[in-house]
Amino acid sequence: MNTFTVKYAVVRPIPDSYDRCVRTNVEKIDVALAKRQHAEYCRALQKLGLGLIWIDGDNTLPDSCFVEDIAVILGEKAIICNMKIKSRVKEIVEVAKVLEKLKETYYIKPPATIDGGDVLKIEDKVFMALSQN
What we know:
Layout: E1 8-11, H1 31-47, E2 51-54, E3 71-74, E4 77-80, H2 92-102, E5 104-107, E6 119-122, E7 125-128
């Protein structure tokens, strides 16, 4: 089994438009609370010894804080996803620019789609969710 040390986390701030993100429920989102929670998340990552690589926020992309959806990271390789939800496609641009500098990068090409948040790696196994949408 290949082992590697995680040294950094790629993060992007909660956009002011976060209350318009893609979701399945209608519960009101408290954007200010989400920003405070994200700040705590970033502090927790730093306490774990990770350096943070910040990608500029973009208020035109309500879901852009979910950088884990944009790519699947497997060691020193990054697979840039092709997002099925059209409102999320532009999120890929800035994340891909950063990952291309850090990893050997591959791209999922249309018509294939994948969301990195639906991929789980445990040791030498990779699990993928199957969406009905």
